[in-house]
Write a structure and sequence with these properties.
Immunoglobulin-like; 4-stranded antiparallel β-sheet; 2 helices; 18 strands; 38% strand
Length: 290
């Protein structure tokens, strides 16, 4: 192979590499574009903004908000809100409200249901919530082609705390606070009506368990469970504490000492008076004779 040939080859190879680089570059750009536009042109999405499950205090208002997002070529042609029971063999869906057309004139099917539709947000409001309003709520967005995109959310009644109980786990020196009912329970512990200190025990992160460090376990342990609607408590009663016993013994001893002291004082007074009286009697005849 002559010198110029070699050089031509090198140049050719160089051009090939350049083409490959450009192709790679294009690939990357397309990939990047796809990444930046994850939904492309067709992507209707709807999600409910409330934290789930939604708990509602009876008599108050239930407000659900949903956010709608869609691609530049899509249009929302209808929004509906429906509800069905959370359990049951054949749950039936009822329509609560629908917002059809371009102007989204929403209409509720009941007097206490109000729906609002804005550019990218729809709000459902039910006033005077009752237990029957609980269930699975579905908001469905229909696009201009008739494709439906739903989002769901569970709604339950906010229940007050009741049926609190405390049980002891002897093998692990712990007290467990169980509560059968109640929404969002917050736990706190008391020993002899005073907040728990390190010398008595430590409380688990969720608050339901008290690991007792004091030995022996004694006195009254109270678990208090509370939420927005009030609180309920239960008490575990262990053997009476030693210090309590010592305290009463000391009090009794004090009382006896006081009695003894009082008795002695009374005796001394009595004795002194009798002595004086005798002396007076002894002096009397003398006085008379003078
Ligand atoms: C006591 O607590 C331990 C640790 O949490 C647990 O494994 C055990 O089952 C408990 N015992 C009883 C009787 O509840």
């Amino acid at each position: 192979m002559t010198g110029p040939d070699k050089q031509r080859r090198k140049v050719q190879r160089g051009e090939e590499a350049g083409v490959m680089d450009r192709q790679n570059f294009l690939c990357w750009r397309v990939a990047l574009l796809l990444l930046l536009m994850p939904c492309g042109l067709q992507c209707m999405s709807v999600h409910i903004l409330n934290e789930q499950p939604v708990h509602v205090i009876p008599g108050s208002s239930l407000v659900l908000k949903a956010r709608i997002e869609h691609g530049p070529l899509e249009e929302v042609s209808m929004v509906t809100w429906e509800r069905e029971p959370e359990t049951g063999l054949a749950p039936t869906r009822v329509t609560l409200a629908s917002c059809p057309g371009k102007g989204f004139k929403c209409a509720g099917t009941r007097p206490n249901v109000h729906v609002n539709m804005q550019q990218q947000e729809t709000t459902l409001e039910i006033n005077g919530y009752s237990r029957a309003d609980g269930g699975v709520y579905t908001v469905t967005v229909t696009d201009h082609k008739g494709a439906k995109t739903p989002a769901q959310c569970i709604v339950r009644e906010y229940e007050e705390v009741h049926h609190v109980s405390v049980s002891i786990n002897v093998s692990h020196s712990s007290l467990v606070c169980g509560e059968a009912w109640g929404t969002d329970p917050r736990f706190s512990w008391l020993h002899e009506r005073v907040a728990i200190t390190k010398t008595i025990g430590t409380i688990s992160k969720d608050g339901t368990t008290l690991f007792v460090t004091m030995t022996p376990i004694c006195g009254h342990f109270t678990c208090m469970v509370s939420n927005k609607l009030g609180h309920s408590s239960a008490t575990y009663t262990a053997a009476p504490c030693e210090t309590e016993g010592r305290g009463t013994t000391a009090a009794v001893a004090c009382f006896i000492l006081l009695l003894l002291f009082g008795g002695m004082l009374a005796f001394l007074l009595w004795w002194k008076r009798r002595h004086n009286y005798r002396r007076e009697r002894l002096h009397e005849p003398l006085d008379a004779s003078i």
